[in-house]
Amino acid sequence: MSAGKPPDPILTAARLAAALPERMRGLPVTQAADAQEIRALLAARFPLDRARDAAQIVTETADLLERWNVHVTHPRCFGFFNPSVTDASVAGDLLAAAYNPQEAVWSHAPAANEIERHVLRVLAAGVGFPAAEGGAHFTSGGAEANHTAVLAALADRFPRFTEEGAAGCGGAPRLYVSAGAHDSFRKIAVACGLGRAAVRVVPTDSAMHMDLAALARLVAEDRAAGHSPFCVVATAGTTAYGGIDPLPGAADFCTRAGLWLHVDGAWGGAWALSPRFRPLFTGLERADSLTLDAHKALQVPMGAGMFFARRAEPVLEAFRVATGYMPRSAVGLLDPHASTMQWSRRAIGLKVFVSLAAAGLPGTVAMLDRMAEIGESLRARLRAAGWTLLNDTPLPLVCFTRAEIGTEEAAVRAAASAVVARGRAWIAPVRLPDGRWTLRVCLTSFRTVEEDLDILLAELAAVTVGA
Questions:
Q1: Is the residue at 3 inside a domain?
Q2: Which three-class secondary structure state does DSSP give residue 303?
Q3: Per-residue pLDDT tens for 202-211?
Q4: pLDDT tier for residue 457 given thresholds of 50, 70 and 90
């Protein structure tokens, strides 16, 4: 750097990012925030009426993020699938920002496009899903991937849908999800022009898995009423309690009933990479489509969803488009703007590639296995401390309560809020399909260790039994 030159904002940001993981343990997971206070500070310090030193702005922005933020990368943020992030993935995201490849057209970003497709091929093989070439791509997140699945299912089951919309489906389309499924499907139904009534919620059984007998009854009832069932969504790792729906039975039923089977494995599906856990996901290989999120269990920055389809044709039909202003497609190569929901596309997969290439698949699997082991340790320690576990999953997500709290919403929310307010850990209250409320802890960080569980247990005791 030449004498007198101000610090480079990129180097400043890189230094701050590099130091953050070590600093993070000394920070509270969350701090009280007041919207008016934040707005007043921004108006006073950043009127945006003149140029200022960019490196100083970076430092001040980092200060704001450190002060007013739920630190989802903290090893004691036991939240909703927002992980710590590997150093390599942060570097990959920096490269995506710096080189800024535009992936809408293959010819404009051949390296970035092929890097992404290589990662998708490796991950599809790793989880045992036979994704078609051209039937897999990165998305902004699980909601977009699930949306893509519903559009592909509509295009496949109703040949007139892509031209006529819902009017081309005959009877009213019907989509089936379990009571534990992600609520994005209600938004997706609206976005697809089907309406929320298109989403049929299937009850869960005593293990909180999709009840396949109830599914069969709903499909039969809908067909008798003149509706048009077209898709079943099975979840591999539900958000509230980590449940894995019966994938082999769902695949059998969809084959008999002529329905598209989508598996939403946004979080839990990553554990199919592990030989230890892969048997839990038997049947996944028979699905028509699959959602995985690298920005959940694979520990990369948001957003990095992934969509996989067994056959490319329905996906390509859902998104095909021709313009007079985009460059011509290279022969035999797919342009993302004409084969995915997004048009202008960031190089989402670079951070995933750099992270996976640095750790290797064996290292990634070891990380997933270690997170699951910490989850098992937490279960054992909660039982020993007198807590009652309310879910049964091998994935690192634990739902629990105790007699003093019970399973009513107000008491559970109060207990969770008391822990969060102390700032040393973040946990959540959730509602189970049977209506019970429970405290929820998910191991989302590869940096969480036994000492973090010590602190969590102490915080739980402090707010519930007066320790």
A1: no
A2: coil
A3: 999 999 999 9
A4: very high
